[in-house]
Amino acid sequence: MSSYYIYIFLAFIIGASATAVTIPLIIAFCRKFGYYDQPNQRKVHKQAVPRLGGISFLPSLAVSFAFTMLVYYSQTNTQAEFHLSSALIVIGATIIFLVGVLDDLVDLPANFKFVIMSIGSSALPICNLALDNLHGFFGLYEIPIWVAYPLTVFVIMTIVNSLNLIDGIDGLASGIAAICLAFFVYLYADVRYIVFDVMSAAMLGSVIAFMAFNIFGKVGRMKIFMGDAGSLILGYVLAYLAIKYLMVTKQDVYTHVNPILIVYSMFIVPVFDLVRVAVTRIASGIPMFHADQRHIHHVLMRCGLSMHQTLIVIIALVVFFMLGNMALDDMDMPITIIFFLDVALYLLFFAVAYIIIDRRETMSEILS
């Protein structure tokens, strides 16, 4: 193992260890003060479960990143560079994180959360981290700053909210995040960008440790949900890593695949689900932020799948889109055509699912 990968491994281990140590303390806190995710008709779980597991993510990331980078700088005799933009991005992440924590504790109004999250998301374009090149998506390449800045905020908000809203069964939001983070570890290793590789590995370690409690923990013992604090900060970190990667590859760094296709493919399932649910709610005359059972995991469980089977199918769908899109790009298929093909496949997936649901419900009526 080269010295470069030792730092990545160290970041992963520290991130995982910090979360593994912190989660039992959070569970004890939730039990003492009654911070539980209560079951209802919309939710899958049938018993109250502690809901503040995501509080561990940002501290674990900070500890792992700081320690690993200190080791890296001391071992390589290089000097850390600090910019004002770094502080602004940390402030933005903290705002998003605190919104999630407060929402878990006191249930903030949706409109208030939206405004504050928009402010936190604005940290990236203020620091000149903006989506200013679409790499041929819909025939667009360089776009003006006055378009790039609001587009960047919109993309960040979309990723953050999509991960938040898809967090409905054990391991789903964290599983999607883990796949994306593992891919970012690979992508940043490919371009040898140690700072963001360490960040990706540290967060990946934290998420993997959380998943052990979330998926395999027993209710009443060590089981816990990430809550909004976890899903929001995960979405923000992933959006940050995605936009930074696009900025890095814009600087003539060689990549095998269209960089915006890589980033877009990671988030297809949660983002498409967000759009589909929003459109169907609006078409039904229901407020867009109204909670219901339209999300992909609800649909699959109505097809007769168990919670763990649903998780496996959705994770497989994420991997399918990622690998399939990269294969199509390798065949020189334009990204815009790939996008419309993805939309068609996604709609076909749901068409089949609803046919299965209809047949199950018809059969149930006949048998009753």
Summarize model confidence as the mean pLDDT: 89
DSSP helix fraction: over 70%
| Radius of gyration from CA coordinates | 21 Å
Spatial strand order of the main sheet: 1-2
Per DSSP E runs of 2 or more residues, the count of β-strands stands at 4
Order of helices and strands: HEEHHHHEEHHHHHHHHH
Uncertain residue segments = none
How big a fraction of the residues is strand?
under 5%
Multimeric state of these chains?
single chain
Q: What structural class do the secondary elements suggest?
A: mainly alpha
Q: Enumerate how many helices there are, as a single number.
A: 14
Question: What is the global morphology?
Answer: globular
Q: Span from first to last CA?
A: 62 Å
Largest sheet: 2 strands, antiparallel
Features:
368 residues; two-stranded antiparallel sheet
How would you describe the overall organization of this protein?
This protein is mostly helical and 368 residues long. It is built from 14 helices and four strands. It has helices at 3-33, 57-76, 84-106, 110-121, 123-126, 145-165, 172-190, 194-216, 227-250, 259-266, 268-283, 296-302, 307-330, 335-367, and strands at residues 36-37, 49-50, 133-137, 140-142. It has a two-stranded antiparallel sheet with strand order 1-2. It has a two-stranded antiparallel ribbon with strand order 3-4. Helix 3 packs antiparallel against helix 4, helix 7 (172-190) runs parallel beside helix 13 and helix 12 packs parallel to helix 14. The protein is globular.
Brief overview:
By secondary structure, this protein is mainly alpha-helical. Helix content is 72%, strand content 3%. It has helices at 3-33, 57-76, 84-106, 110-121, 123-126, 145-165, 172-190, 194-216, 227-250, 259-266, 268-283, 296-302, 307-330, 335-367; strands spanning 36-37, 49-50, 133-137, 140-142.
